[in-house]
Amino acid sequence: ETKQKYEDSKTCIGVISIDNYDETMKGMTAEEKPQVLAELEKVIYKWAETTNGVIIKNERDIYTIIFEQKYLKKIKENKFEILDEVKKIEIRGPYQITLSIAISQEGETEYEKYKSAMATLDIALGRGGDQAVIRNNGKYSFFGGKSVEVERRTKVKARMVAHAIEDLMQETDSIMVMGHTNGDIDSIGSSIGIYKFGKNLGKNVKIVNNTYGATLQEFIETAKQQEGYNEVFIDRTQALTLINDTTLLIVVDTNKKNYVEVPELLEKAGKIVVIDHHRRSPDYIENATLTFQEVYASSAAELVTELLQYTTNEVILSTFEAESLYGGIMVDTKNFTFKTGVRTFEAAAYLRKNNVDIIKVKKWFQSDLESYNVIADVVKNAEIVRDTIGISVYDKEDENSNLICAKSADELLTINNITASFVLGIQKDKICISGRSIGDINVQLILEKLGGGGHMGIAGAQLEGITIEEAKKLLIEKINEYFA
């Protein structure tokens, strides 16, 4: 009993952040701002009262809350109802008020707990905000995260990051660019953009490309035919031979340690830069010198295109390089229909000036008749769960099954009344799952429970050591948990 009292009396420290403060306040008049802030603070302080804690306003959009651990259980049970309460505050403009909350129980001292909470807040913000994250014993618990990410109009951060990367590139002679395993045209296209960035500064740049699916076969062959690109692509063995403690490693289109092409490179590089548009996962690359992670962006190619526009030394893209980046944006937005903002079209317009042949780019994604028939069969065999979720299985062992699953999941979403789709496939000794949504259901939260990740509308996961039937059963369990 005494031990329990001691545990209950331990301190928890939390940090509350108002998401997109500047964008939210911009649409209000001078009279409305104090009224809205007063209403918002009333909700925050009322919630703090339920913990019998102390709340301090650090900055205009950051609050620190200190309370005893015994109140954390009740907060969890109520699923951080404050996240929904603040959304009820009506404001002028296209935005909605949302909060990001981070709570930590880790650390011997209060200061260590505060530092841990601030680091946890970065994860909440890196996942798109509008959620709460609790860190305890190195593990994270997530609550909320059901709002669509808000696009930031200002490009100040892109300019600052471009200059910072340029400085890091100037300090080294050797640069490596690496995407995710089973690379797609977004990871390769953005890698080519970074290659051009470094090459423009006269640096030795290599792209690590160890695995790729059928869609990239034609693209890689086209790339190697371009002038100067014949020896740019290196495999795992070559990368491990060439890397040293002065190499700058730039990771694009992923932030997960175990999802990069060659995880060993993360330990051997001198400095690491991460450029990604996915929501931050719990096993993100922690030792990065610089992280440019914008979850509102459509693709890594969009982010790289923005960076190229702000370099001190002007970068002149060849038609092929512009087409690579354009293809990355096209594939991740499903031909500019998903997750596109104003900045997506601005990046595309910048690339179009370089004589991009859209028909040629589109041909890189075309399926052959055999694959199309397989996709049609997978769609035909889908079953509906919870009224609006389509689930199907591609049960043949196929090295391109992840591609079949992704395209089948996309195709299922075109059917009326289906708001989310999941397709499972077998790839070597793993079960791959592709999840898609039109925005009503957060497929990332569902697949994250299976060790995956991605976005609210596009996500994936890989499972090992189970059959496809067991994986399907597990997926349905997690879908039911999500709705519960």
Describe this structure in words.
The protein is an alpha/beta fold and 484 residues long. Helix 11 links the parallel strand 10 (248-252) and strand 11. It has 19 helices and 18 strands. The strands form three sheets. Strands 2-3-1-4-5-6 form a six-stranded mixed sheet. Strands 9-8-7-10-11-12 form a six-stranded parallel sheet. A six-stranded mixed sheet has the order 13-14-15-16-18-17, sandwiched between helices.
Provide the descriptors you would attach to this structure in a database record.
18 strands, six-stranded parallel beta sheet, 484 residues, globular, six-stranded mixed beta sheet, alpha/beta
Quick overview:
This protein is of the alpha/beta class and 484 residues long. The protein has 19 helices and 18 strands. A 6-stranded mixed beta sheet has the order 2-3-1-4-5-6. A 6-stranded parallel beta sheet has the order 9-8-7-10-11-12. Strands 13-14-15-16-18-17 form a 6-stranded mixed beta sheet, sandwiched between helices.
